[in-house]
Structures are given as structure tokens and as C-alpha cells.
Amino acid sequence: MHAKLSVVALSVAAALALGACGKKEEPKPVAAPAAPAAPAAPAPKPEVVVKLGHVAPMTGPQAHLGKDNENGAVLAIEELNAQGIEIGGARIKFELVPEDDQADPKQGSIVAQKLVDAKVHGVIGHLNSGTTIPASKLYSDAGIPQISGSATNPKYTQQGFKTAFRVMANDVQQGKALGQFAAKLGAKTVAIVDDRTAYGQGLADEFRKSAEAAGIKVVATEYTNDKATDFKAILTKIKSKKPDLVFYGGMDAQGGPMAKQMKELGIKSGFLGGDGVCTPEFMKLGGEATEGNYCSLPGMPLEKLAKGPEFKDKFSKKFGVEIQLYAPYVYDAVMVMADSMKRASSVEPGMYLPEVGKTKYDGVTALIEFDEFGDLKGGAISMYRYKGGKLEYVETLGGDAVGAIKEVAAEVKDAAKAVATAAADAGKDAVKAGAEAVKDAAEATKAAVEKK
Amino acid sequence: MKRHRKVPFLHVAVDLPKMDIFLQQIINGLVQGSIYALVALGYTMVYGIMGLINFAHGEVVMIGTLVTITVATTLIKAGMPVAVAGLAGLSSAVLACMALGWSLERVAYRPLRNAPRLTPLITAIGMSIVLQNVAMIVWGRNYLTFPHLLPKVNFEFAGAHFTAVQVMIVVVSGLTMGGLVLLVYRTKLGMAMRATAQNPQVASLMGVNSNRVISAAFVIGSALGALAGVMVGTYYEIAHYQMGFMLGLKAFTAAVLGGIGNLAGAMAGGILLGIIEALGAGYIGDLTGGFLGSHYQDIFAFVVLIVVLMFKPSGLFGEKTGDRA
Amino acid sequence: MSRLLTSRSAFGMLLIAALLIALPFVAALGGQAWVRIVNFAILYIFLALGLNIVVGYAGLLDLGYVAFYAVGAYTYALLASPHFGLHWPFWVILPIGAAVACVFGVLLGSPTLKLRGDYLAIVTLGFGEIVRIFMNNLNAPINITNGPQGITLIDPVKIGDFSFAGTTQIFGISLSGPQKYYFLLLALAILVIIINLRLQNSRIGRAWQAIREDEIAAKAVGINTRNLKLLAFAMGASFGGVAGGVFSAMQGFVSPESFSLIESIMILAMVVLGGMGHIPGVILGAVLLTVLPEVLRYGVGPAQMAMFGKMLIDPESLRMLIFGLALVLVMRFKPAGLWPSPERKRELTGGS
């Protein structure tokens, strides 16, 4: 036994050494596609590297969404670097530090600590509410601003952390809108299914409150989990209660097969889901069974937003795949962070954190402003219909949706005015007439929106 | 249409479960159970001969599904008729899984024949992790869609809906299990397997090559697994590198329920498990007034297992074997 | 024990003590994340030693050990968080957690007494899942566990005004939260190891070994196998309960996702890989299997860059693959574990 003690000492030392080899490595940065060498310009301006952490599940059932998030962040960082921003007298180069939390809260905490150790200037993420919430404590303790583009659980911003922000509507707003929409669809009875995750259960609960408030009767509540593939048992039970609508709080990997099995069982009810099933993946997995059903997404549809189509274009050109779900929000999150740094003239977390709360940034997904909790002000939710393998926009509910459209209309009107003035100055009557026409159109849009 | 009947001994009018819903649940359970049974056979064959829980068997099933997807999709894209692509996919899966099962035994388990009991278990767990991650690297992280191999035909009987695919699953499973019984009870190999399961030392004394028998058990079990994998793919039309884990666990539970090491037990256990899960998810909510419901459906199987084992410690069909050290 | 006091072993022990005290500071050179990883390693040492009692000493294959971990964690969370508004001190809650886990150990062990080896495995596995699913769903009609959302803002360990969270200055040295927890865990670990050593060399320990080797013979010589098996479950469970409580306090957040079947399997792997029934082996197993995935997390990316100049395979995918391979290879070449007890080694090399 005593001889072994020295062996133990040696192995402890060995383990330390082994760990030390790993410890000294910095987290692997995703370098921008530019060559690793610094810009060749012999500029006297110092270059500061700003590291932004990004966390999402890169392995596991939601890995396709994690990758999507990362793509959004990468796109934003490249554009920022291409702009050659200067803050506080130094040229800024943004660098993404990607991490995988596997949608597991324990891993999320470990990875969060890793980022805190690496002294990142800000964190974008995480993807899942279940990992974002515990990680947010670590970032708050370290004073690192955190903006999530996809964590919708209300609790995230209710913990009182000054560093927690999100750039989309949370599940309270989403559930409420979904309930109202279900009533609009004319459903009198609904069956609710949730997948027993923090996200699914939270959304389903909010939906229930809203639906019942709208006078809809909940005739069945069933459950599944986020790894299941067979739903026939619970669907058969739901069938026996004959609801008008089935609501699913959960992700596309389950929602798709669920819709399919509903059809196989001959269930005539409609299907409604939240942002977790509002993805191309859902349509791929559910096939024709998804046709004609509805889902919701936070914010406004990309096509209707001023910068939306342009973003879609850029994204597909660069990555060659469709946007899965949250990439535009993550893109905006990065932009908001950079914008806050610019306004504060500093990249230090302590310095630019107050500026984050004062953000008024016109992003791809919305005009981004935060309330005192870190939630997105306004928080519009848009409803979509699955048609022909694509999402077809239906309408927008809640929040400052109307205001956002008004803003866009107002901008169009201002632009038209400017053109009209220029035309008048240049004396081109034709142009003037055209500009007036645009102005009228903008007024008409505004009126139509106001009527709504 | 609710039917109220006065049930004798209960002096209340009771809502009898609607027959069409009940029948539907039975069908759901039967189909799912047939799949469990096929996978359970793989576990039980290996356990019966070697006393080893082959944790990696669920992953073999998963590989079967994914191989079928790759082969069939490629052939369909190349313009081959669906039936041919399907058969090619199936055969590739069976061959691939047989090879995989054989290598697993040869490389990972054979060297550990004389090791302490738990060592091969940890090896099996390690191989399960390896196979999952290899699948993730090769096939990616996303869910994959299984190609349409069978025509979509729907039947209706007494209000219950079922599809051609479901019928095929039950029929093919039944035939396969029948074939396996024939193999084990009517062929020389089968006799050798039964002998080795009963008493390895005496069997080898009588001239049975235990290595070959063990390899055969793995290969046949893996072939059955591949078939089950194709069925899962055809039925749910999706596949994912992590799909084998839960399926393997449930199938193993079924095998234990029926009496591990016992072929009839595995089959009965599988089908029983499927039906229990379906009926449980469908009716427990109503029976307990909403306290327990479908959110507990994953553990119905375990609860039933525990109750059964309390009365029959060797499973439903298990024989009381003497304590093997 | 007197063998331990020779000058050679005293030196060895001093060396180890010095290394252990220096460890959190060395680890912090690589970042606080590494101190956390070390803390998790110690936590898993508790769990592995607890499972070692059940599997290693008594020979009962328990695949649902994580249930006790979960029970301990939730007990702490319920008694020290805003959830019920209770904020009891840790030195009250940890023993309560251990006691509750003990009760669960007896509850879960009772139906298994008549079961043979592998039936026992699947039943304990079932129990592990049952506990987890109950934790996940007990948020209606009365909200006990808050369901999938988990319980947040759990109090850190506090002694009077001294909190283990956050950084404090002691004698001019700055100790971070994780570093303070390290020393608490180290103290508990020493206690746990001593208890285990005493158990192993006691009559109870020997009775367990008798049951493991041949239960019928043990019964024949008058050992009350029923009570001893239950005792094994209860004692093993209590370690899990303590570990769970500290986990809760350290992480500040618990949810059912942390207590899945994979965890039970991992802990079993630690026991078997390290050397079943042999305390130093089990400790080694726990440390290795906790640290290895993290080292791979940091190392796989840069290693690929160094070897191939680019990323051939995603580091995340490769990490767990290497881990699985490590399990297979170790079992292949060291079937009795990395550091088996001397008796085991003799048994195996002397032919089965």
C-alpha cells in the first residue's frame, strides 16, 4: 500500500501534466476566412481583437439548429470585419469563439465558465432556454453581456440579471398570440401536447392560458419527450376526444412525425405549433401531412421586412443552405452587440453593458429595443401557414407589429419625399410624378395598417 | 357516440372504452411490439449463450436503418424502381449488420471471454458510444428521411385505421420469428446453440465449436436487428444517429420481461411491451383522474416489469436456472 | 493502518497532501473552468465510491444509481432556494439529503432482493428512469419539483457570512468560488474515503464480499443476506445523496436532464474501469473519466490542426468517439480495471 502511495502521487502529477497540456490551449477560434496574417497595411492604428462567444448544441438532435445559429453569427462577424470598424481609436477585428453545449444544462455551465475564463467580450446565446438560464448566472457574475437569439423561456430575463438580453419575443408573448390565433381560426376545442422540456412545457402552458381566456376548451393534455418517434398512442387518445385543433409545444424533430401520424390515424384536427416547428425541417419530416397547418415565429417575416430578402440572399449565397430558424436573430444579436460597443466607444464589457440596454437598432428581424428586463420591446409574433413545402405568411399579432409596419411605411414615405424633392429640383416631371405615386402608395399602406 | 352501459358489480353507468379507439391502441401496440420483439431476439440470443448484455445491439439496428437510407436513396435517385432500391437497401443493411455483429464479437467480446462479468458490459457501452459517434460523423447530425418504399394504402376496420406498412411489419416479424424457431429447433446449428446455452463445457466436449456458435448467435441476432431497423425506418420514415439507444433499451426490457435467454420469452415480451405502452399512454390518464398520464408513458414498461419480476423473478417464461457464478 | 505510518509512506502522503493543496491554484492557471472540472471529478469520486459499495463490495449490479444523486440534489434545491422560500443551512440539508437518499436506497433495493444478477440490473435501471421522470413531471397538480424547468437560484453553501460563491480574500490570497468549493469537496472526500476504508475492512465489508462471491454459501454460514443487501443499497445511496446536495449548491440550478441513464452508466464505467472494489482504483476511474472528455474538448481541435493543418472531423463528434474507444481499449487490455485490488489480480492471472 505505501509503495502505491508514491505511484498515486506520480499519477496525480501526471494527470495534472496531462491537463496542463490541454489547459494552455485557448478555445479554438473560428477565424474569419481572411488569411490569419494581420492586414498588410502599415497603419499605426492598433488592432484589437474582440472575442464573442457563441454557444449552441452542435451535436445531438438539435444540431441542425445549432449550426444555423452559428452561421448567422459567422455572417454577422464577417460583415462587421469587412466594414473596418474603429472603436476608441483602434481597429476592431471580431472573432467568434464557438462552443457546443449539447442542449445539456451541465455542459452549458461548463462551457459558460470556459468562455468567462477566456475573457470573451460578449456572449451570443445559448440556443436552448434550458442551458441559457443557468449559464446566464455565470455571465452575470462576470459582468459579460449576453444576448440570446433563440431562448424564449420567460424565466431567462426574470432572474434580475443586468447582462441578460434577448432579441425575440419570449414564450409568454408567443403563447398568448398562439392562443388568440387559435380562436381566430375558429377552434372551439383543442388538445395540447408538450414534449416535457423547459421550452415545450413553457410554451404549452402559456398557450393554454391564452386559449382558455379566449373561450377555447382544452379537451386533452398529452405528453411526449424530445427523443420520441412514436406518438400513435397519445394521438389515438386525442382522436377519441375529437378536438378541432391539436397544439404541439416542442421541436420539429418530433412535430414532423407527429403530423404524419395524425394523418395516418385519420385525425381530422388542424395542427398548430410554435417556433420550434416553424422550420423547413418540420416540412421535410412531416411530408404532405404538414400542408395547411399553422405555426408561429417571433418577429416579422423576413420578406416583409426592409432588410429581410437581402439577408436571405446573403445567407444562402454564403452557406448554400436554407435558413433553419434563428439565424437572422443571432445575426441581429451580434450586430446589436457591436452597435452597443460603438456607442460606448469601448469594447470592455463593463463599459458597453449600459449601452446595450439603450439600444435602438434597426435590425433584420425588427427594430430592436429592450425593456428593463432585457426582453425585446414590442415582441411581435407572426403566424405562418405551411404551403407547398414553404412557409406562407398569414398575419402578425401582438406587440408593436403595427408600429413596425408603420415605421417601414414611414421610411418609404420619407424616401419618396426625398426623391420627389430631388426631382422637383432637377425639374424632371416624370420622376416627380412617379415619386408622388410612391408616396401615395405608402400613405395607402399606412392607412391600411391603421385600419388593421 | 358515447355508450353508457350499466356494468354489473359497479352500480354506476360506466363509459365503456370505445371499441374503435381500443382496437386502434391494440394495433398501435402490436406493430410497435413486433419491432421490439425482433430487436429483443438479438439481445436474448446473445445473452442465452454468453451471459452478456450486448449494449451495442441498439446501435446495430440504427446502422441498419441508416445504411438502407443511403443505398435506397442513391438507387432511387439513379432512376431504379422503388422495389429494387428497397430490396437492395434491405440486403445491404442485413449484410452490413451481420458483418458488424460478427466484428463486434470477434474484436471486442471474444478476447474477454474469461474476464470478470462486468468487463464486457463496459466494452459494450464503449462500442455503443463509438458506433453512435461514427454514425454521426458519417451521416450527419440531422434527422434523415427514409424513402417511400411501400405504397401508401390505408385500411379501416371497425373504426380503427391501419396502413399497409403496419400489416407488413406484423406479418414479416411473425414469419421471421417463425423462421428463427425453425432454425433453433430443427437444424444442427440450432441444436448446437441450444446446447451451448444450456451448458457450454459439456457442449464443447460433445464436439460443438463454441466459437462458431457464438459468432452465429451474433450474426443472426444482427441480421434480425437490421430487419427491425428497416421496419422502423419504413414505419416512421425518419432516422437519426441516436435512434438506437431508446429502442435498444426498451427491447432489452422486453427480453427480460419475457425471461432473458428464452426465445419465446423475447417475442412475447416484445409484443406485450408494445401493447402495454400503447394502452398505458392511452388509458392511464383517465383511470387515475389525470394524476398519472402520458407523461409517465416511458416508465409503464418498467413498472410492469418490476411487478412481474416480483412474482416471477426469472421473467414470464424464464426457467429457474441454478445460480451460475 | 499501522503500515501507513512508516517514513516512506509518510513522505508519500505529505507529497500527495501538498499536491492536493496546490491543485486548485495550478488548475486556475488554465482558467476557472479547470477548477470546476476538478470539482466535478471529486463529485464523481463520491458517486463512484458510493456505487462501488453496491457493485464492488456487494456485487449488486445497479444501473440506476443516478436516482440517489437526483434525490440528494433536489432535496437540497427544495430546502435552499426561492422555490419553497426555504433557506436552510447546508450542514442541516446535506445530512437530510443523505438520509432521504438512504430511504430511497432501501425502497429501490427491496423489490430486487430475490433477483438474479442481470434482472437486478434492468430493474435498477428502471428505477433510475422512474425517479427521473417523476422529477420531470411533478409540477402538477402540486408543484413539487417545477418539472422540466428545474429549480434555479439555489443558495450556495454558506458558513455564517462566509459564502462559497464569489471570490474572497483570505490571508492575502484570492480564492474564487470554485476554488473554495474545491476545499470543501476535498474535506468531504477525505471523510468519504475514510468511511469506505473502514467499511471495507469491517465485518460488514467482508460479509458483502461473501455475498458477492457466492450468495448461497453466504446464507449457509448464517449471513443475513437480505439485510446486508439493503444496507449496501442504503449506504451507497447516501453517498450519492451527499454528492447531489453539493452539486446543487455548486451549480445553483438543477433540472431532470442532468440525471439521465447515461450518468448511471458513466458512474458504473468509472467503477469498473478503475478497478471494481478497490478504492484507489475507483478514485482513479472517476478522475480519468471526468477529466478525459474535457481534455479532449480543449485538445481535439488544436491537435487536428497541428497534425493535419485543418479540421478533418468536427471536434465535438470526435471527442466522444475517442472516449468510447478509450473505454473499449482499456477493458480489452486491462479487464480487471486499471488498478484492481491485489486479490482480484491474483484471481485473474491465476486462471479463472
Characterise the protein shown here.
- The complex is a heterotrimer of chains A (452), B (325) and C (352).
- With 452 residues, chain A is α/β, with parallel strands linked by helices.
- In chain A, 49% of the residues lie in helices and 17% in strands.
- Chain A has helices at residues 2-23, 63-83, 105-117, 129-142, 155-158, 171-184, 198-213, 232-241, 252-264, 280-286, 308-319, 327-344, 349-357, 401-426, 429-451; strands spanning 47-56, 86-87, 90-100, 122-125, 146-148, 164-166, 189-194, 217-223, 245-249, 270-273, 294-298, 361-362, 367-368, 381-387, 390-397.
- In chain A, helix 6 (171-184) packs across helix 7 (198-213) and helix 14 packs antiparallel against helix 15.
- Chain A starts with a helix and ends with a helix.
- With 325 residues, chain B is mostly helical.
- Chain B has a domain at 38-262.
- Chain B has eleven helices and six strands.
- Chain B is globular and about 60 Å long.
- Chain B starts with a strand and ends in a 14-residue tail after the last helix.
- Residues 10-15 of chain B have low confidence and may be disordered.
- Chain C has two domains: 1-30; 33-261, no CATH class.
- A two-stranded antiparallel sheet of chain C has the order 1-2. A two-stranded antiparallel ribbon of chain C has the order 3-4. Chain C has a two-stranded antiparallel ribbon with strand order 5-6.
- In chain C, helix 1 packs across helix 2, helix 2 (32-57) runs parallel beside helix 6 and helix 3 packs across helix 9.
- The mean pLDDT of chain C is 86.
- Chains in contact: A-B, A-C, B-C.
- The A-B interface holds A 58-61, 63-64, 67, 196, 221-225, 227, 229-230, 232-234, 236-237, 239-240, 253, 256-257, 260, 264-266, 281, 284-285, 287 and B 18, 21, 24-25, 28-29, 32, 136, 141-143, 145, 154, 156, 161, 163, 232, 236-238, 240, 242-243, 246, 277-283, 285, 293-295, 297-298.
